Each structure stands twice: as C-alpha cells, then as structure tokens.
Amino acid sequence: MSWKSELKQYYLIISAVLIYFIRGPPRKSWSLKEHITVYILRHSLFVKQDDLVKFREDIDASTLAEVKDSQLKKVKIHSKYRQQAHSTVKTYLKEVYGDEDWYGEESLWSNSKPLEAEWLVPNHLTLSSQSNVIFYIFGGGHVFGNFTSYRAEMENVAKTSNTVVFGSSYRFAPDYSAPCQVEDLLAQIFYLTSPIDENNPDESGCGINFDQIVVSGDSAGGNLSSALMHLMRDLNIGKFAGAVLYSPWLDLACSQFPVIDCDVSDFIPKLYAVTPTKGYTPETGDNGYQMGYYGSTEQIKKAILKRGHIYAPLKHINAPIVSPLCDSNFRDLPPILMITGEAETIRLETFLYHGLINEAYTTDEINKAKIPPVTTQFYQDMVHTFQMIFPELEASQVCFIRASHFIRQCFSIKSEKFEEIKLDYPINTQLVNNKSSDSAISNEWPNIYLNDLNQNLTNFAPKFKTVPRLIWERFIKSE
C-alpha cells in the first residue's frame, strides 16, 4: 500500500470514528467496527480508479483467505469446453436476441488468459463424480474479485452442508463485454458435467450430474448465478438442484435506484438507472461507470464508449442474460434461497424477483412443492453481502447455517428420507410461530421472512415503493 493510500485509510478511520460518536451510525445496532468498515468501503471501493488492473491485484492480495480443514486444488478448463460454451451462447444470442455480435475480436475467449478454477474439499470428504458440489460465483460488480477471498466462508458452508465447493472464475468487465462472463461459467459447467475420459485426462470432464450442483453467488455473482439458470432453462441444458443468492444484483438497468431510501447506510453507491436507449458518458456516469472507465486502457475505453455501458451493449442492458429480473419467464428454475440486508441499496430487486417467481406458480403448486420455488430472508440492519464482510456476526453465522440447511434439502429432495432431513435441517431456523395476524401476510407473500436483531424469523410483507422494471421483449424472427 502506498503512503497516499495509507494516509487516506487513516483519514477515513478518523472521520468514521468522529461520525459514530457525534452523529451516530446509520443503524443504531451497528458496532464501531461495523460502522468504520462500511464507511471505508463506501469511500474506497466503488470510486474512480487510475489503474483497474492494480486495483484488482490489491483487492485480491488484501482479501486472500486460507482454509483450516480442507484441501485446495487448482484446475484449468480445457479449451474445448470454452469453445463449446462460446458456440452455445453465440447461437442463443442469434436465435433469442437476433444479434450474435455483442463484442469484437478483443473479447473472444481465445484472446484471453486461461480459465482457471479451484476445488475446495473438506478433509472429511473425497472428491469424486458422486460429490455434491456448490458452484460458487464471486461478486465484485463484474469488475473485480476472486474466489480466494471467499475460501473461509465457503469452507464453513461446505462442512456444514457436507459438500465440496467449486470456486469458479470469469473474465471481468469492462475488459470483456457481456455475455463473456456467463460464457465462462457455462464452460465450467460443461467441464463438471461432461463424462470422465480416463484415456484423455487433459480433456476429461468430471462426470457430475446437474442435480449434484447447487449454484451460489453474491452480488454480481448472484446476478451471474441467476442469468446462468435462466439461460440453461431456455436452452434445456440442465437444471441445478438449487441456488443460494446472497444480495443478488439482478437488474443492471438499475431501474429501482430512483426510489431507494437506504443509500446512506450501504457501501454500494447509488447507481444511475439506464435504458436500452439512454446511457451515460464518463463525465456524467455514476461511481461504478467512472471506476470502470477511468481505470482502463485507451483500447478498453473505446470499447466502453462503443457499447454504451461498462458491462454490456446498452441496447441489451435489460436482456435476461444480463438482467434476469427483466425476463418474462420465471418458471422452471431450481429452488432458490435469497438472502438480503435491510440496509442495502439493491434490496428491492430481491423482493421483485421473489414476487415474480411466486406469480409464475399457483398457490397450490407453491404449497405442494417439497422446497418452495423461492424463499427470501431479509436481515434487519444488515448491508450488502454482510455475511462476507462480517462473517463473525451472529446474523452471518445464522445465515450460513440456514444456507447450509437449504443446500442439504436440495441434495436430498429425491431421497426417501427427505421429510426426515427437512425436519433435521430446517431452512428457516428460529422461525417464530405464525400468529393469526400473520396468515394474511404469509398468503400474500409466501416464504419471505424478516430476520430481527435476535435472529428470529417472522413472516414479512415488503411495502416498499417500486417502479416498473424494463421487461425484455423477445426477439421475433421474420419469416
């Protein structure tokens, strides 16, 4: 860390301490440590950068985590899976969007670094084609991040859920336009689910079935998890056993940001809403836009200006492969557990997604499902991805237990002992018995719960103001 960075860090700490004791934190329950951490993140994470590559390297180095009771194994994804994913996505873009050319030669997988991932295997387990797998997709605004930052938290979940973890990776924006990120993740799914070839180990798959995989991710990783599920459903590729989404960023058009009311408490900045025809320039863009633009090379800056957005072509910003909240079909997805904070800026997207999934099913279908199509847990006073930033908090520990129980249920749904497992590993631990006054809430918003400061869950009906989402209109081919 340079002396300028250290000086800024000290300045932010002193400022945060003064605010805490003079004005008070944004949420009364916050400790001094929580307040200082959120304050520093708000003023140093999504801000203008001079060198995005160095910024990524610094983040990776400062957040590198180790494991205690697990083995780590690096793997390189063979080019045949990357080409398979590229061809699959390119055909999909042509058939579904009428536009297969979302990016130029500079974003082709063949012009990028090798695609690597990491296995995390608890010591009491052995990796095999019979393993149950958490396919984890890290967050970072699609711009930075690394699975190595999540090792400790995912080791915790893996041990509690009796699974192994596949720490995925993907190319970053703005260097690479969407859907390169989904393409990389699909390549890794093809690698996991392709047959084992003992005669050709370099190109061999892992022989794992789709129902042995739970996809999971935080923030941008939650976005990519959801986009991947929608894509795989549309192409009938396969269906995961389930999905765990932590503070998922589901709408890159940011349609709900004009009505958010908690931007002063979260470290995620207030982003600007865009449409397929209205974007922003580097001078007028939000913090995320400026971070991606000013920290990039001249070549990448030109690509950003050409596409109109740091992540995707502006005209496709509400496409489901970019913004799954903007889809028109929410059926036939795996069972989903969403976890979001009351003090975070993108909470509205979680509630809208929850409602859209529920609306896709009848009440009878929801009630008869072994695992509900979607369950959402809303944590009081918690910020964006709180469990990753403050894993030591009781709320975070309870959150990971609930996620682990959900994962166990997903992998046991075909078991004869499912009902027994469901009782032993409840998703909604510490659920307060419903009172008669809660029944109307439960019927209106099934399977959505508020987690209070004592870690108790109660039925919850969100009454937040929202604005219409930018529903994507399916491309119709001319005869």
Automatic annotation (TrEMBL):
Start and end of every Alpha/beta hydrolase fold-3 domain? 134-387
User: Which keywords fit this entry according to its UniProt record?
Assistant: Hydrolase
Which InterPro entries does the record associate with it?
Answer: AB_hydrolase_3, AB_hydrolase_fold, GDXG_lipolytic_enzyme
Endoplasmic reticulum found in the keyword field? no
Q: Name one GO molecular function term.
A: hydrolase activity
The record ties this protein, via Gene3D superfamilies, to: alpha/beta hydrolase
Domain of life the protein comes from = Eukaryota
Q: Which PANTHER family match?
A: AB HYDROLASE SUPERFAMILY PROTEIN C4A8.06C, ALPHA_BETA HYDROLASE FOLD-3 DOMAIN-CONTAINING PROTEIN-RELATED
Name the chain's protein.
Answer: Alpha/beta-hydrolase
Q: Which source organism does the UniProt entry give?
A: Conidiobolus coronatus (strain ATCC 28846 / CBS 209.66 / NRRL 28638)
